[in-house]
Each structure stands twice: as structure tokens, then as C-alpha cells.
Amino acid sequence: MMLKPAHLLLALIAAVAAPAYAQNVATVNGKAIPAAKVDQMVKQVVSQGQQPDSPQLREMVKKELIGREVMIQEADKQGFGTKAEVKAAIENARQSIIINAMLADYVKKNPVKDTEIKAEYDKYKSAMGEKEYHSRHILVATEQEAKDIITKLKAGGKFEELAKVSKDGSANNGGDLGWMTPGKLVKPFADAMIALKNGEITQTPVKTEYGFHVIKLEESRATKLPSLEEVKGQVAEALQQRKIAAFRDELTKKAKIQ
């Protein structure tokens, strides 16, 4: 059936106008909010696992975008966009967004490998050692003070009481340092501690950068370390941050900085 000229004109107008209308979800004071902007925000919300795509979510996003448009139009009308501090904040945000996009791409192209994670875990495991130790200490400023304390201990003095003179926080709880692995302690202290048997006290003062120590070993046990699977995510994140830091340092070295 042939359309009359008037009907044909209306059909053409409808065909042309319909797609344009479909591209926008609303207009605010003549400013269009495109459907693509809704799609973009919905995709972002869904990717973050906050909630699935739904008509309810799209309506909520639409209202949010309308609210933003109303507010930005009023802010522009009042001239906030021309204020120096606002311009500075916008520039900082612009830089952060662009840098984060670049780093996301860098991480995608330079992923942390399972072999790297395993190597880092093995290094950590080796540094921690096979045993951990529960010790006490008394920290003083001079070697003679430490020798005097050892003499008092040999004479029957109670370690917890004498520890009250210790010049660190452990003085309030009998010099107790809790359970530690040697890798977490300065080497002279760690070496002296692991040489002791349970219940023994160092017979000579132990000098470190902090002063002079008298050490008592309470007990020792096999080190309790988390499995690789338990810490894999944390190790991967740490290695990823290390890669990013190296990338930044490399760019800094190449840059001409005056």
C-alpha cells in the first residue's frame, strides 16, 4: 500500500527523531543526559559487585545523573568552576584519573607471575626461620648496669622485678617480648637469644644499637607460618606495588628534573 505524501513525511520524521530521543534519558534545562552515560555508570557499579544490572539500578543512576546535572548547572551559574582552588582540585583529579588508567594498563601488561609469588613467599619463610622464641629482656644504657643486673639474677633476683628498670615499653610487663622469630630482631639480640636453652639467661650483656640487654629465653617452638595459599593475594599485591614503584622510579630517572 502506498503512503500519502503527508503520511510519508510523518513516517520519515518519526524514523529520524526516534533514535535521537532514544540516545538521551533526560534533559535538564535543555542539557541532554545521554543514555550512554547511564550505561557507563551502571557498568561501573556492576563491575564493583555492588549490585546487578536491573531497571531499578538504571532508574537510580538516572536520578543520580539528573541530580548531578542540576547541581553542576547551579554551581557553574554561581561561578565555582572559575575559582582557583576548584581549578587546582580539578587538575589534581584529572592527573589522578589519567595516572591510574596508565598504571592499570601497566599492571595488565606486566602481571605478577605465580613463580614470583612463590619465590617471595620462600624468601619470607626463610627469613622467619623454622623456630620462634618467647623471650624477656632488660634494656639499660650501659654495660656496667647490665652486668650488675646479671649479678643480681645470679644471686636469686627475680627477672620480672628487675625488668622494671628497662628503658623500653616492656618494663611494665616484666620485660616480656612475646613470641618472635629471629628475623624480626636485630642480629646481636637474635644470635644471643637462640643460643640460650629454655629458662636460661645471658651471662654477659648483649650490645645492640639500642643499648645493653640481659636476655631470658622462656621457651621456643616451631614457627607458625600461614600457607602460601592463605597469603597469596597479599604477596601478589605487595609485588604489584613494588613493580609500580620501580616503573615510577625508572620514569623519574629518565626525566629531566631541575
Q: Could you tell me the strand content as a percent range?
A: 15-25%
Biggest sheet, strands in spatial order? 4-3-6-5
Distance between the first and last residues' Cα: 79 Å
Q: In oligomeric terms, what are we looking at?
A: single chain
Largest beta-sheet characterization: 4 strands, antiparallel
Shape: elongated
Give me the Rg, rounded: 34 Å
Number of helices: 9
**How confident overall, as mean pLDDT?**
90
Can you write the helix and strand succession as a string?
HEEHHHHEHHEHEEH
Secondary-structure class: alpha+beta
Structure overview:
By secondary structure, the protein is α+β, with helices and mostly antiparallel strands. Helices cover 57% and strands 15% of the residues. It contains nine helices and six strands. The strands form two sheets. Strands 4-3-6-5 form a four-stranded antiparallel β-sheet. The chain starts with a helix and ends with a helix. The model is unreliable at 1-6 and 8-21 (pLDDT under 50).
